[in-house]
Amino acid sequence: MRVIRADLEVPFWCSFSEYGTVNIRPTYPFPPPTTLFGLIQNALQKPALHDLTDNDRKGIGLQYIEDYSKLNFAIIINESGEKIDDYLNIHKGSREIEGIESSLKEELQNRLDDLNLHENDEKKLKKELNKLKRKNFSENFLKITNNQKISEKDEKQILALLELIKAAGADELLIFIQSFWNSFKGGINGYNLNKKWISTQINRQRIITPKYTIYVTSTDSAGEYSIDNMYSCLKSPKRPLYLGESDDIVIVSKLAIKEVNDELIKSVKIDSVIPGVRTNCQLVKIPCKLKNDFPDEKGHNLICSIPQGDLDQELSCLDVEGEHIVFLRNDS
């Protein structure tokens, strides 16, 4: 059997947030297989699902599930690092308004093309579309119409825009803008549109300067996820590599392809994380499936054991140049 072996050293800190946590985010003590798959994806310059359109996300997401199923990992914790609590202030809210304003700008652009205005008037109005598309333009226009007070700066800007629209004979733009925003007053669209941004504090655990060794096997013999291609991309990655969050830099060293004897040995000394429950171990539940995968009867998680010394009974394992390892999926 051919495997990739690599040492992973985090020079600063990293965090592998437990799946499903929100404001309080404990970290797993080692990178789960899903995180290691992300490391390989980054080396291959694969796009993140959240960067894709809805149409592309589904198909590519299913492809990633298939690609992930080809790989298996063994993980050794060489240095566990020091866990610390970090506190972050973040803003929560909805960014839906940005997409709505963009669609309004596009509609206004089309309506200006249909109005057959004087060329100079049309040109001037098109320059102001970024102001006309804003929700606060509609709100301030209503306030001025109802003799309500707004800031001097806003009033000056609104009056200038109204004068420009009137001079161009494009009053129907104002009617359309008001009608557009009125359609978002109720229901879920209205809720998302008017959702206020709030500040909240997150408690995130981080691990200072941990070190790991990983082994990777693949059932892909000649494709992107073949041992040779993954080795090549990890050696010369197409993007900067990180482990966990996108600013948690990782140094990959002692990268090598190893020929491993498939014959299992038995030993009470296991160096890697072990799937299942064992004595004299620290137990941890980690994700073993991608977020967008469908859970089977076992769910998305896998209970693992981190050896704290010799086991009380021998366990089947692979001997790789003196390191006794067990891959996390039992079918390998």
UniProtKB/TrEMBL annotation:
Pfam families: Cas_Cas5d. Keywords: Antiviral defense, Coiled coil. One of its GO terms (biological process) is maintenance of CRISPR repeat elements. The keyword Coiled coil applies. Gene3D superfamilies: 3.30.70.2660. InterPro entries: CRISPR-assoc_prot_Cas5 (IPR021124), CRISPR-assoc_prot_Cas5_N (IPR013422). Residues 105-135 form a coiled coil. NCBIfam families: CRISPR_cas5. This is Type I-A CRISPR-associated protein Cas5. It comes from Methanobacterium subterraneum.
